[in-house]
Structure to design on (90 residues):
């Protein structure tokens, strides 16, 4: 049996992560910012792009699940709904 599979679940390798005080301050700034682009559902695009820059990833996706109704109430990925590219992070 492949050691990365346990009871039918894939167990990806995990690397230790160190969080600096600068990272924590940046995250506090991201969640504490007053944003003018609040959508009806989902996260503001400015928040999504800020998180992408902090996480250092190619894309992010969010979704809300109503477990009582067993339904997804919204989905959102790192591209705005009009198809325009999300702002690039430096």
């Amino acid at each position: 049996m492949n050691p990365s599979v346990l009871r039918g679940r894939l167990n990806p390798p995990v690397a230790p992560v160190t969080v600096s005080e600068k990272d924590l301050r940046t995250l506090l700034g991201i969640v504490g910012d007053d944003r003018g682009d609040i959508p009806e559902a989902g996260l503001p695009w400015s928040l999504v792009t800020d998180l992408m820059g902090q996480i250092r990833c190619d894309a992010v996706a969010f979704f809300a699940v109503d477990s009582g109704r067993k339904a997804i109430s919204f989905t959102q990925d790192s591209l705005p709904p009009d198809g325009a590219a999300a702002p690039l992070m430096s």
Notes: The helical segments are 21-32, 45-55. Residues 19-30+39-80 form one domain. The beta strands are 5-6, 9-10, 61-66, 71-77. The chain has a mean pLDDT of 76.
